[in-house]
Amino acid sequence: MNTTINQYVRSLNRRNFTKNVQRVLYALLTTEGGWVSRGSLRVSTAFVRDLRKNQYGSFDISCADSVTLGRTGTPTTFYRLDKNNITLAQLRSVFEV
Predict the structure, then answer these.
(1) Distance of CA 84 to CAs 17, 19, 22, 47, 80, Å?
(2) What percent of the chain has pLDDT over 90?
(3) Which domain holds residue 22?
(4) More reliable by pLDDT, 73 or 19
(5) What one-character-per-residue DSSP string does 32-80 give?
(6) Which residues of 28-53 are buried (b: 16+ CB within 10 A; e: fewer)?
(7) Structural domain tally of the chain?
């Protein structure tokens, strides 16, 4: 992510989020390892799918299962946001509603 996007994300206050789609996007933006497990999102995966829609910025989100990623333990789904092509307009379409 570029500097402007990083500054915008750091300026967000999670306590002010009123929509689950905002919580999901924030989790995807702030993850260190890239992949976020379905369980750690704590909301329905429908909100991840919503982020792919034009209404919410058409984000490029990848999906993989734990077997594909070579992870052991309970099978689950993981999501990753392509942070290289994010624009400020996309973020504002979700966070400034």
Answers:
(1) 24, 24, 19, 21, 12
(2) 67
(3) 3-95
(4) 19
(5) SSS-EEHHHH-S-THHHHHTTSGGGT---EEEEETTTTT--SS--EEEE
(6) bbebeeebbebeebeeeeebbebbee
(7) 1
Q: Is the pLDDT of residue 97 over 80?
A: no
For residue 19, the 8-state DSSP code is S
What is the predicted pLDDT for the residue at 73? 83
Burial of 83 (0-12, 13-18, 19+ CB in 10 A): middle
* Closest to 24 (Cα-Cα) out of 47, 50, 57: 47
Q: What is the reported pLDDT for 51?
A: 95
